[in-house]
Amino acid sequence: MKEEKGNKNFTYLIIGLCVLFLIILIVCCVVFFNRKEEVVNKNKKGGEVTLSYTDDLNVFSITNAVPTTDAVAMVSNGADTYFDFSVNTEIYEANKIDYEIYVEKYGNTPTISDNDIKIYLEKQNSGTFESVFEPAAFEPLKAKSELGTPRGAMVIYKDSANNDLTENYRLRMWLSDTAIVNPGTIPSYTIKVSVIGKSK
């Protein structure tokens, strides 16, 4: 009789432990699946790209422009016929920086149509400026570029840098030799030069 009672007690003990284990398992599952996911935000500085220039503003204008052939304008060294600037890249935690140089119309409404303006860009290589963007009329973007150049601006050069460096550029702009100048009009056009980049 005592042995039967002992067996019952042992059975109750086993059942109790199983129930307790089941309760603990359910509580653990509920806690695990209902826990809030921890979000850790880390701000890393991949790198930066900046534009340097010697003028007071990153603005280039032509006024009283006369129609000029590409061959002449591309080598002209006269005053106010070109705009020199530099693009500086600094790499911090990124592998490289992709950047775009772009221009956009600036200030007063130009008296030269976009089709009659010529924009040309050179990059310095071993002390000599070489063409990286052939003479072309101003053609605005219809949508923001992948790197962030705004709609209405014109990308004139794209490049990448995987280390700290400074690249020198020379921008030229002139009135096309096929342009028709209306009497009494002062042909003028102003653009702003900018750079935008993204580190990867």
Counting helices, strands and paired strands, the structural category is alpha+beta
Unreliably modeled segments: none
Q: How many strands, what sense, and barrel or not for the largest sheet?
A: 5 strands, antiparallel
Order of helices and strands: HEEHEEEEEEE
General description of the model:
With 200 residues, this protein is of the alpha+beta class. 18% of the residues lie in helices and 40% in strands. The chain contains two helices and nine strands, in the order H-E-E-H-E-E-E-E-E-E-E. The strands form two sheets. The protein has a five-stranded antiparallel sheet with strand order 1-3-8-5-6, with no helix packed on it. It has a four-stranded antiparallel sheet with strand order 2-9-4-7, with no helix packed on it. Strand 5 and strand 6 form a beta hairpin. It is elongated and about 115 Å long. It starts with a helix and ends with a strand. The mean pLDDT is 86.
Summarize the structure.
The chain contains two helices and nine strands. With 200 residues, the protein is an alpha+beta fold. Strand 5 and strand 6 (128-136) form a beta hairpin.
